[in-house]
Amino acid sequence: IRTACFSVRKKMASFVLRRAAGRLAPNSLQRWASAAAVPLTESLPYYEGAEPDSRKPPEGVKVHLTSHRSKRQVSDFFDQVTKLSNGVTVASLETHSFSSTLSVYVRAGSRFETYSQQGLSHLLKKAAFLAAGGRSTFRVFREIDHVGGSLSAANTREHVVYRAQLLRGNEDLALDILSKAVVSPDLRDWEIQDLTPRLALEVTAHEDDPESSITETLHGTAFRNALGNSVLTPRFNLGHVTASDLRAYMDEWFVGRRITLVGIGVDHQELVSRAESSFSSVREGPSSDEETCHYCGGGEVHVPSRSGLTHAAIVSKREPVSLSSEQDVLLAGVLQACALNFSYSDNGLFGFYVVSEPQNAGRLLQAVMQEFSSVAKGDVSDADLTRAKNQLKARYLMGVEQSTSLSDSIAAQLTQNGDYTPLTTTNQKVDAITKDAIVQFAKSVFATRSTFVARGNLSATPRMQQLLEGVSLR
């Protein structure tokens, strides 16, 4: 079967190439072949039949042109933010691409669930594009497929996210589907109950994944409320959440002040106009009244299993590793390397995650702590600091290559600070980080009580106290 499929693919590829060759003039083929050999650092040569992008950027956008192609940097993109009368925030970044990404962020993640509501945000993700606003589930996906688009949803500890990616020019349809999913979902009981097996399957998959399991256990141990809630549905609540429970949760948290619409590759004024119509029925809601999340720490959890490996993580809280302190976020990013770094709107965790053969677990954990201790004592070379800065900037730069990551970054900043910092400005701040700032940050990381979680073969895994003894971080 594999051989037959490979043969079919070869024949199809050969057919496509022959058709393409028949449509291109000989000189075009020669230029196409020469263009393929051009280094990625140089502009492609002009060839016949190519038409420049006829769309013009809005006034104020700088576009550097080479031949018929454009070279754009993130700093050249046109970004705007508008707040609607009902509190909904609309942000856009005009990239002049042929595709658009629309994302709706609702600040209604798992941290806002009460004990009996645990798992509601997870269920909302699964129920995101069921029947809504007169469309059946089949019609929702049939219409978005018809225009070459896709729909997806996600839930985090702070947000429920609804997203559409599609070819430019179909934003009306996408926004209509997204807004109906947020504003007027049908939420039929039988459809909600049909999601239970899928929820259970996802919970099982996460439980079987050591890294995911340790991440959830870390949060549950470090925070006794809010951020301690899992992003997954607890097993005791599987199948017990009803459509009326979802409606009550959405009525409480799906309000204008907590909704952010981010568009990538769209015209801002058109997006605002569409949003005013699509989200007109959303009430503004009261001022943010959220429970403050408290870090407790000091917990230690060991989960033995028959695994052939040992997975372990030790984290602590640093005041304040949160999105509200941009400088601390950048410092944590430079120091991070292969460490764990969770930053939320009002709290955060920083530490290390290791995977090793069981007999080496203790030595590896102690070596990691000793290495971090040396940083806290000032043993940081200029070359190491420069390398870490470059790694962080590279991660930011590669992140904006994906519209989804770019949307997440914009939404996170808008939710917390009400504004968006351009990437060029962020990179300048990274460059300005000094060795002394890194050392001071490292000293503060384990100044509070630590949290330790280990899973797998724990035959040689030390206790947390053993790791902290004799390791000076001051």
Task: Give a quick summary of the entry.
This is Cytochrome b-c1 complex subunit 2, mitochondrial. Helix content is 43%, strand content 16%.
Walkthrough of the structure:
The protein is α+β, with helices and mostly antiparallel strands and 474 residues long. The protein has helices at residues 2-23, 26-36, 120-126, 137-146, 171-183, 189-194, 196-208, 210-222, 243-253, 268-278, 326-336, 361-376, 382-399, 403-417, 423-431, 435-445, 464-468; strands at 64-66, 69-71, 78-83, 89-94, 99-106, 150-155, 160-167, 259-264, 300-304, 310-316, 339-343, 348-356, 451-456. The strands form three sheets. It has a six-stranded mixed β-sheet with strand order 3-4-8-5-7-6, sandwiched between helices. Strands 9-13-10-12-11 form a five-stranded mixed β-sheet, sandwiched between helices. A two-stranded antiparallel sheet has the order 1-2. A hairpin with a 2-residue loop joins strand 1 and strand 2. Helix 5 (171-183) packs parallel to helix 10 (268-278) and helix 11 packs across helix 16. The radius of gyration is 25 Å and the shape is globular. The protein starts with a helix and ends in a 6-residue tail after the last helix.
